[in-house]
Amino acid sequence: MYKQYINGELVEGQGRLMEVYDPATGELIDSFKGATKEQTLEALDAAAKAFETYKMSPIATRVALLYKLRELLIRDREYLVDLVSAESGRPYPAACGDVDWLITSCTFYAEEARRVYGTTFPNVSTPYGGVYHITEFRPLGVTVGHVAWNYPLGNLSVKMCPAIAAGCTAIVKPSSQTPLSALYVGQLCKEAGIPAGVVNIISGPASEVATTLNQSTIPRLISLIGSSETGLQVMKEGATSIKKYALECGGNAPVIVMDDVDITAVAKSIVAKKVGFAGQTCVNYNRIYIQENIYEELCEAIKEELGNVILGSKRDSGYVMGPLIDKAARDRMLDLIEDAKAAGATLVCGGEVPEEFSKGAFMTPALLKDVTDDMRVSTEEIFGPIIPIQPFTDFDAALKAANNTPFGLSAYFYGHDSREMMKAIEAFEAGEIFINGAPGSDQTPHPGTKQSGIGCDKSKWSLDEYFDFKQVSIVV
What we know:
This protein is of the alpha/beta class. It has 15 helices and 26 strands.
């Protein structure tokens, strides 16, 4: 059923058998033949050939393609939600969010494609009107998008949709852990009438498919959602030609909580963040610094809120936290907890694998108290349902600790003193900063600083990545 989408056709992979498992049950969902190096080269050639004509396509044509794809996604939304839920372990509401991200991205980039403007300006050193400069944008070329498993379709959307809107062609490689929903989108791209070669969706071993894509001289842009280590590998492999990169890499997000907050509301926000998709997001809370005089009270409020969370999957009802992506990821969480306990932290609750959930990659969400910055749970990106808290007395020291990491993706502040708020905004070394639980949106950029990446996903600034400048100077 699941085939590679290459040059406008759904084709069988010619490589090894790829198996996809449900992390909630450990059971096989489906299998398919992966793409080979030769098929990857075919996709690259198809994208390059398609670009020669697609780059000249009217903007209205590109918009129509995105809206047609959007119609088909809405039609098959429930099927896709169940598929995402099965392959990623996301409970139904979280899987809905992932599918809806792709649907809204079709709309957002279709509308933004209409708003890509150039500019003209006179020469400042010659008589006015004698020389004019024109700056315009032109489609970049073939783009490659490496998609992480935690948002199978949301991550795909910010690689595929801007390429279609900009007049580029795209090759998207989904994660081998969650490829099924992306390959199904390939079927919808064919049904939507997207021209052959404009979108290619291929899945196979990273050592074969991803390396071939990165080392090729055809792509003008390689984008990634993944770890910082993978980002470095992509850049090393891509050094065969001059390319643009848009890399959204790992994070180690700090959270500073001041003593003037609504403790119950903050506890609910912390728990929601850490149990939503079992904490497996790159922007998730990693180091939580709480002002000392509310430390014990907030710890108790978090513990109480965690009592409302139950383990489950798919369409189970209640305040459900699903499994981690696999048992290796779960076991790493248990190791982080043991390391913190051995170094002096206290496990307040959670961090267990109930017998009735042992077939899947489940664990109960854990609250760790009295964590310190030298523990692994502080120095490594957690990427799981562990809530590590520690007290602070000096705000400046907390800000310094918050920035004591090579990563700079997201940072969070809870408090209502405007002076402290602005001090945090200025001090945080992060691409995006969230105050009092404020959410992001399709319109807000998702950039990283330091070792958390370059470029950004989402927003008009993401679309800019898919264009070249063209500068023209004219003597009148």
